[in-house]
Amino acid sequence: MKPSPSAIERRDPPNRKLVYVFAGGRADGDSSLRNLLGGKGANLAEMASLGLPVPPGFTITTDVCTEYYANGKTLPGDLKPQVEDALSAIGIAVGSTFGDVDKPLLVSVRSGARASMPGMMDTILNLGLNNATVEGLAKRSGDARFAYDSYRRFIQMYSNVVLDIDHGVFEDILENYKNLNGLSTDTEVDAEAWRVIIAQYLKAVQSEIGRPFPQDLNEQLWGAIAAVFSSWHTPRAITYRRLNSIPDSWGTAVNIQAMVFGNLGNTSATGVAFTRNPSTGARQYYGEFLINAQGEDVVAGIRTPQVLTEQAKQEIGAKRPSLEAAMPQAYKELTAVFDKLEAHYRDMQDIEFTIQDNTLWILQTRSGKRTTEAALRIAIDMASEGLITPDEAVMRVDPEALNQLLHPTIDPDAPRHVILTGLPASPGAACGEIVFSPDDAEEAASKGRTVILVRTETSPEDIHGMHAAAGILTARGGMTSHAAVVARGMGRPCIVGAGALRIDAANGTMTAGTETLRAGDIITIDGGTGQVLKGAAKMRQPEMSGAFGQIMAMTDNLRTLGIRANADTPRDAKIARDFGAEGIGLCRTEHMFFDSAKILAMREMICADSEPGRRAALARILPMQRDDFVQLFEIMGGLPVTIRLLDPPLHEFLPQAEAEIGAVSAALGITATKLRARIADLHEVNPMLGFRGCRLAIHYPEIAEMQARAILEAAVIAAKQSGTPVRPEIMIPLVAYRAEFDILRAVIVNTAKAVEAETGAKLDYQIGTMIELPRACLRAADISQGDEGAEFLSFGTNDLTQTCLGLSRDDAGPILTRYQEIGILERDPFSSIDESGVGELVSIGVSRARAVKPGIKIGICGEHGGDPKSVDFCARMDLDYVSCSPFRVPVARLAAAQAAIRAGSAKKSNAAKA
Amino acid sequence: MKPSPSAIERRDPPNRKLVYVFAGGRADGDSSLRNLLGGKGANLAEMASLGLPVPPGFTITTDVCTEYYANGKTLPGDLKPQVEDALSAIGIAVGSTFGDVDKPLLVSVRSGARASMPGMMDTILNLGLNNATVEGLAKRSGDARFAYDSYRRFIQMYSNVVLDIDHGVFEDILENYKNLNGLSTDTEVDAEAWRVIIAQYLKAVQSEIGRPFPQDLNEQLWGAIAAVFSSWHTPRAITYRRLNSIPDSWGTAVNIQAMVFGNLGNTSATGVAFTRNPSTGARQYYGEFLINAQGEDVVAGIRTPQVLTEQAKQEIGAKRPSLEAAMPQAYKELTAVFDKLEAHYRDMQDIEFTIQDNTLWILQTRSGKRTTEAALRIAIDMASEGLITPDEAVMRVDPEALNQLLHPTIDPDAPRHVILTGLPASPGAACGEIVFSPDDAEEAASKGRTVILVRTETSPEDIHGMHAAAGILTARGGMTSHAAVVARGMGRPCIVGAGALRIDAANGTMTAGTETLRAGDIITIDGGTGQVLKGAAKMRQPEMSGAFGQIMAMTDNLRTLGIRANADTPRDAKIARDFGAEGIGLCRTEHMFFDSAKILAMREMICADSEPGRRAALARILPMQRDDFVQLFEIMGGLPVTIRLLDPPLHEFLPQAEAEIGAVSAALGITATKLRARIADLHEVNPMLGFRGCRLAIHYPEIAEMQARAILEAAVIAAKQSGTPVRPEIMIPLVAYRAEFDILRAVIVNTAKAVEAETGAKLDYQIGTMIELPRACLRAADISQGDEGAEFLSFGTNDLTQTCLGLSRDDAGPILTRYQEIGILERDPFSSIDESGVGELVSIGVSRARAVKPGIKIGICGEHGGDPKSVDFCARMDLDYVSCSPFRVPVARLAAAQAAIRAGSAKKSNAAKA
Fold first, then answer.
1. CB atoms inside a 10 Å sphere around CB A664
2. Distance to chain B for A658, nearest Cα, Å
3. CB distance from B300 to chain A under 8 Å?
């Protein structure tokens, strides 16, 4: 009888269940116990229940992991009898016994957390072998070489993982033996030779750790269990969790399973398969296998594997046979399993299998990682196949991953200087400087340089460099190698298995045929074709089409939240509209001032001694700024455009380097001394909290007057030229007091009256404010109250985060890194809104503003507007819109639809509820 | 019938009352209508009701002022008939008629706001004179010279105030006439001569403004009324209101009153009196008068006046007779009025009077400004006289003014190099550089220099310089002159009427007898004795005694709020205890690091490459810091001491000037390059929002460990040495997340366990946090929750103001000045807590923390802790204590008692309720 979850929670020692067995078509657990059994354990139990050929085994729960760490890395006493019982059950299922010298039971010991963390934690295979049982295995299998090879693999792996002995110790012994005996490959090592090598291995262990390699199988077993639990806290696992926002508290389960062997000769094989193509999403079986190999050989990318299907073989022009051809019966059984699993889990599965002596075993299944392109296609296909509902299809796509689609691709019409080709492991194109180490990648990226990480192969230790790189290129490995899986997960363009690539990292060069490139040289990689190009290729901006367009169309039907873009230039506005933005939520006018004509007038304005001087300079800026707005309004074709008045501290417009002072002062017609004095005058200790935002226009109302005039005159012109009414939203930044708003509102209203009188046009505009200070949130009712109060509010959550947390975005880097490392923060609050702090201020602001002005339009225009988790928050706050950078508009559209589905508030559900 | 207030508010034109008459022992208004009639108008009405000899008149309400500004400086149409009626009523009361050539009614036109603004607004006297009525006045008074003199004074005053003609125009004519006719003083100018001069004045007016001086008396009257309303908005009035926190919206009333003349020869006089001594508070009539003069002559300080009483005459050794001797009957009537008014108003009165031909007229009464010493004495005396209750006595003292008592005085035993003596106009001693202009005073003060403003006399235009100066010295004027009144109000030590002083401002020198001093030379002024000393005299710290001590003792019985001090050094701690602090609410440990021994070790710590390097440096700091704490604990003798862990950005400890780098790097034994690199490393864009507060110890827990050890070891030592238990409160700064608190709490708790193990002592300490970020206020429940949560909270309202308002204290100066000028802010939010923003965050924090931990100790340790208005806020928040700078402790004690009285929550009321 399964214990109820409450019994598990009670932790009453005599009754509590720490071990869940799956064997002989029955299982204690199922996939609903994912939190307790980990993803792998839950799926193994589920598969066993489904009657699939799963090697019998059992799972030690994640609760044991939690207890292990809580009790100073010791395992609970009541675990032992449960493990012993479970081992017996496995033995009965496979007809062998743990430690039996005639019929020894061999097991694998693997990690398995709630979320997949590929390659991050430790695994031990072939456990159960010692000097006695190896002989029994040899006899029973009739293959002494297999038995000794398994034993030496076990010694190597166990010594490394449990005893912390370097791999190199064993590799040196093996290399030395081969050299002495004139052998060049491992396959030439015969049974007797392995025995000799094993003896040397055991001696080496004794000398490394001062005691013999454990021959006691129980010692082996408990050492392995503890080692797997311990591997939850390796630095690489911690880094992976931080990058993937996985809490440390989840812990891992341990799965112990009877070994099956893909390396029992040519009737055996091991492989990895997907039920659909994880790169394109096409409905075709997809995978790789190796004959006479253990599973790790495939994933490690050391041997290049064969493909599953004849179709795939033909498509890539492979020489060696497919599984379909080589083992037709096993292939047939395997595809039947594929269909059963996909129908059961209603998602594409990623399956590990082994064929032992023509018998198929399924080792693992899980929802397969996929490219975003594939995710979209699979979601759309499964919805049309009726396997999932349309709402589910929308929920299946990770909004964050859409970025992957939004990367540029190489212009197909541009000339290509291809120097190398590999496997197209993760789509999108990237262009950057060559770096040969993850550390170099990270350092260069931190300086704002764009790099391509070039490696022979990648390992979990390389993750930080892969994250920092714009793209990844490896010489070895297949489509399911570490580099490929990780790059797809990160959305980085990636090419793997570029066999012609030779890397000399020590000298900082790479060679591809006749081309030799150095670190720092520019290459372009095309993750869609596998081509590596010399130099910077011409790129093409992404387009929305196919499955992407279908999903986007579905999101627009579902979401209740409007999506606008932060766009300062006509170019940004164009991209934003192409990506489906429904307006501009933030146009930062200051970005318009940095071209050479405008900045000179701006500097004159700043350095003027009097209002007339400032007005003269502003008069020169007016027509330029008006032209910018005309273009913006025309591109947006009547969609709302929110324009923020000048916001940054004025010193940002003045030269900072002494070298520039001379030229700038000459251009301004003032002395260098005067310019220096003005710069000193504007210097601030904390410019973020200084003379900026509406404070500028409170001091110099003529700036607001010029900007209001430029906006409103542009509205008149654009409306006349286009025939479409233009309704600008003028936004006053950094308001803390209603009186600030009132003063600047009066300036704008008076300007509007003047423009109306001059042009004869009737202006339709709104005046609102950016809510970006805690005080503004608290005073939102006051700021909004009445007809002359703010007509719209836009939360500037970047600045609100800085003030609420007392943390300068410019200075937060090292602080936030440390805080995430030691677990104070799960996420960067500048990326994903701090719901319990900043979020509460937003909530206070929204409710107070709506209490006095129920229909007031409220949006958000911080970077958070493009973060899916924050978009969900904004939807829960019932905001009218989010505004984000143009490239994140599709992300926000999808996130908004998912938020609506989650809240059950989808506008007009596409879903025929299952 | 008086209209009800609601009728006034209704503003129904036909019924509304804009003019309030007082004449013949009856009055439309009374002192309860202060807001409508202004202080002067309400008191005139009240005095008239009391049957006092008030010249008949009427008041135009402050509502008319509001309407005047609302309607573009035009007066309401319905005012005219009411003014005409009121003028008739005055005429009837005095037996003359406005414009009657035989019996002309002359009136004064004066401002009068809700709060006193001495000398800030305009006044016109003798209105009603023209070329015709002056003859009537001459005939009726029998004194042609008096009539022409009055007329020429009127022309001068009216031309200046209403027609905006410079004084100099008339002064030049008069000087010229006297020179041509060999006259040296005005008294030598006879009636005929004044006629000639008047003709020249009238001609000058015509040429200045292009039209004649108005002979139409109604034009005169309405011009004067409008001018008085207009003077509400002169720059000097606006400045005064800003300094005194008087809202612009109050407006002024206009009082029009029959003229009485103190300048009708030797049976006439004019004077200013106080019912008690406004300098000491002694129960003695106090005042000054001038025979044959108009009121302005006394206040302007041009002639040095005579004293009221014989006693005062003897005390100051005056030569000229007292009023008591010169006009015994008028004196007797006057003192009867004093007694009646003081009994009626239950406060010391400041009274203006005129004696016209031996008849006493009371022109004005109001609560008199007084020194703080006097305020204390009067409050205590009146309470013991039974005139007011003890609670009222406590309410009578302005806490802010206590500063005046807390200034140092000159050590009586020190040698004094007295170079000059004047009138002791405002107590306390001050020492500083001589400056001769208010602008120089302001500029020097802004650079942190201490200055004494030395002027011939002061005027309202000088206020900004008086505010900036540490003390004020004038050559002319009496105890009620502008300089004296303003300096007392500001709490600045002041000496006036130092007749031997000669100032040559143009050459930047002053001469006192044989001594000539230059601008920048140091002098000391003793506002208690009137002595001016050359150089810096030895000062003595203030002591609490007499009335001060009595009031303070009363406050301690009343208040519920604890008062602590912010003290970083043993010296501060000593002062704080002497002033009655009940503990230290904030000890900023970083201030201990700046002496040369500690700063070197601190710099080594900062520049160390590794934790061992930091620990080595910290080990050298430990004993020094421990010694500081031992002293602090011993001084505080068992009172609570809150010690904050290191808070400021580390760069503050490193040299900033390139010149210092060499020496410092040599002292540290590192290269200049390395030191520069570390400085660059620690540079931040917004240090206020950067690597500081608990973030330091999160990165370098060894700092918190050392500080916790120093505090706890010191507690053991001090307890052992003194026999009094020491209970330190360790405060973690800048917490935003509970996890930050937990991590540092663990460091402190572990250190405490180690110290207990090493010393065998049982430690009693608390760990709390400073709440100084909006997020911390919002998360106060989370931060306080549970036994391992914060045990106390202290609101750091300085930083909370910076983050809530997004305003850097270091950069706020020009912004706040502007904001106060244009009325966005009434008060500097760094001086007086922003209740509706920052205050709400405090309120949220308090209620959330108490919801989860009802008994949690909560205080405030920002500068606001010493601001009376903010103390009142803290009392309303029901905080446990406020902590302020040592010198403000008495201010806080009094403010806390007043808050308790106001709230009706006084601990144990001294009051026998009236």
1. 20
2. 17
3. no
Helices (H), A535-640: 546-558, 570-578, 596-607, 611-636
Helix B546-558 to helix B889-903 angle, to the nearest 10 degrees?
Answer: 50
pLDDT digits over A190-204, tens only? 999 999 999 999 999
Q: What angle do CA A769, A771, A774 make, to 5 degrees?
A: 145
Residue B71, min C-alpha distance to chain A (Å) = 18
The pLDDT of A568-576, averaged and rounded, is 85
Q: What are the angstrom distances between the C-alpha of B143 and each of A337, B129, B137, B146, B733?
A: 128, 15, 8, 5, 78
Alpha-carbon radius of gyration of chain B? 32
Percent of chain A with pLDDT over 90: 60
Chain centre to alpha carbon of residue B771: 30
Q: Residue B104 has what DSSP assignment?
A: B
CA angle A380, A383, A388 (to 5 degrees): 130
Segments of B400-514 assigned E as strands:
409-410, 418-421, 423-426, 429-435, 451-455, 471-474, 494-496, 501-504, 509-512
| ipTM of model over 0.85 | no
Query: What are phi and psi for residue A481, nearest 5 degrees?
Result: -70, 165
Q: Which residues, in sequence order, are CB contacts of B730 under 8 Å at separation 6+?
A: B642, B643, B645, B708, B711, B748, B765, B766, B767, B768
User: Which residues lie below 8 Å from residue B633, measured CB to CB, with a gap of 6+?
Assistant: B641, B714, B715, B718, B719, B722, B726, B728
Q: Quick check: A262 and A293 in contact, CB under 8 A?
A: yes
Interface residue B250 vs chain A (CB under 8 A)? no
Q: In this structure, what token pair is assigned to residue B8? A: 């006034």
* Residue A598, token pair as written in the block: 């405008």
Strand A252-258 relative to strand A107-113, pairing: antiparallel
Residue B304 has a pLDDT of 76
Residues of B with Cβ-Cβ distance to A739 under 8 angstroms:
823-824
The residue ranges of DSSP E strands in B10-155, in sequence order, are 19-23, 26-27, 57-60, 107-113, 123-127
Higher pLDDT, A11 or B521: B521
Chain B residue at shortest CA distance from A802:
B689
Q: Which run of H or E residues covers position A453?
A: strand A451-455
SS3 state at B810: coil
Cα distances from B606 to residues A685, B652, B659, B732, in angstroms, run 22, 11, 20, 20
Beta bridge partners of A770: A794
Name the burial class of residue A304, with classes exposed (0-12), middle (13-18) and buried (19+) by CB atoms within 10 angstroms of its CB: middle
Q: Under a CB-based contact definition with an 8 Å cutoff, are residues A678 and A649 in contact?
A: no
Tell me whether residues A778 and B695 touch, CB distance under 8 A. no
Report whether B253 contacts B20 (CB < 8 A): no
Return the CA Rg of chain A.
32
**Res. B609: pLDDT tops 90:** no
Taking an 8 Å cut-off on Cβ atoms, the answer to whether B806 and A779 are in contact is no
Confidence of residue B386 (pLDDT cuts 50, 70, 90): very high
Angle between helix A611-636 and A570-578 (nearest 10)? 30
Q: Is the pLDDT of residue B595 over 70?
A: no
Is A686 close to B686, i.e. CB distance below 8 A? yes
> Closest Cα partner for B86 from B127, B109, B52, B58?
B58
Decide if pLDDT at A9 tops 50.
no
Q: Catalytic site residues of B?
A: 482, 861
For residues A440-447, give the mean pLDDT: 87
Catalytically active residues of A are: 482, 861
Contact criterion met (CB below 8 Å) for B306 and B289: yes
pLDDT at A79: 95
Which of A686, A799, A819 comes nearest B687 by C-beta? A686
- Per-residue pLDDT at A82: 95
- Position of tokens 């505009």? A765
